[in-house]
Amino acid sequence: MPLKIPDTLPAVDILKKENIFVMDDTRAHTQDIRPLKIVILNLMPLKITTETDLIRLLSNTPLQIDIIFMKLKSHTPKNTPIEHMMMFYKDFDKIEKEKFDGMIITGAPVENYEYEEVTYWDEIKRIFEWSKSHVTSTLYICWAAQAGLYYHYGIPKYHLKKKMFGIFEQYCLDAKLPIFRGFDDIFFMPHSRHTEIRKQDILNDNRLSLIAESQESGVSIVMANNGREFFITGHLEYAPYTLDQEYKRDLGKRDDVDMPKNYYKDNDPELPPVVRWRAHGNLFFTNWINYYVYQETPFDISEIK
């Protein structure tokens, strides 16, 4: 997929070295087509890593995509240079009058707080509400999935005694859905979270569809409004070594984090991880763009409602 992103974004050089086709602004202006507009609200601490992970997955169809990164006005990230944020990110209030074909909202390291205790919760609520009338389809990932289900549908989260951490088998519950086109019956997904949502709460709300789950990691993917909203409790976007970095960051500092399950070769953290989720991660994002964004969004983007 030709992705229209700023020429100087660090992800550009990284992905070109992986032979992933990324179209910079200069070349994109020479193509006479309407690109899809995708806005990404990146709440993860390591912004550049997450940018790269998501752009990598949005690069698999022949459609041109205009990527816009959004930041919160009510929160200043500590782990990304302010110069990077000022150059590549826009505040919500600068783009809230615009409409977008798709939106991705990432996880955030605030799971152990109640939603109302999160310092930027009021701004997040505004964005969640805005997305209902300004975006064709939204992907909520990890904490954002839990927060979105809570805000839109009143679904609670529950704290875990031990972090749900590792690579877990997931089962498609409705293989006929376009989001699962090309999927195997079982696929793998990384999980990295201290809280969960529970199956019965989802089943009790007829506005929600549980479309993938795991015997070990529980609720996996929830869909609402015929695909206008997807809530993903794991991280199909993760790069191979992300869980390794998280594990070694927390090693010796927390007593609720074990070695990630089903991750390292021979369960030895001195050996490299076994990547089991890459193909389905690419397929999931491609299906989302094709069937729930491109084929659903109006040609006149102002008609999104």
Q: What features would you describe in this structure?
A:
It contains ten helices and twelve strands. It is an alpha/beta fold and 305 residues long. The chain has a single domain, classed as Class I glutamine amidotransferase (GATase) domain (Rossmann fold). Strands 1, 2, 3, 4, 5, 6, 7, 8, 9, 10, 11 and 12 form a twelve-stranded mixed beta sheet that branches. β1 (3-5), α1 (10-17) and β2 form a beta-alpha-beta unit. α1 (10-17) crosses α3 (47-57). The model is unreliable at 27-32 (pLDDT under 50).
The class by helix and strand makeup works out as alpha/beta
Total tally of structural domains: 1
Morphology call: globular
The CATH architecture comes to: 3-Layer(aba) Sandwich
What is the CATH topology? Answer: Rossmann fold
Oligomer class: single chain
> Which blocks of ≥5 consecutive residues have pLDDT under 50?
27-32
Supply the CATH superfamily name. Answer: Class I glutamine amidotransferase (GATase) domain
Rg, rounded, reads 18 Å
What are the secondary-structure elements, in order, as H or E?
EHEHEHEHEHEHEHEEHEEEHH
Helix content: 25-40%
- Broad CATH class: Alpha Beta
Number of helices, where a helix is a run of at least 4 consecutive DSSP H or I residues: 10
Keywords: Acyltransferase, Amino-acid biosynthesis, Cytoplasm, Methionine biosynthesis, Transferase
Protein name: Homoserine O-acetyltransferase
Site (Important for acyl-CoA specificity): 111
Function: Transfers an acetyl group from acetyl-CoA to L-homoserine, forming acetyl-L-homoserine.
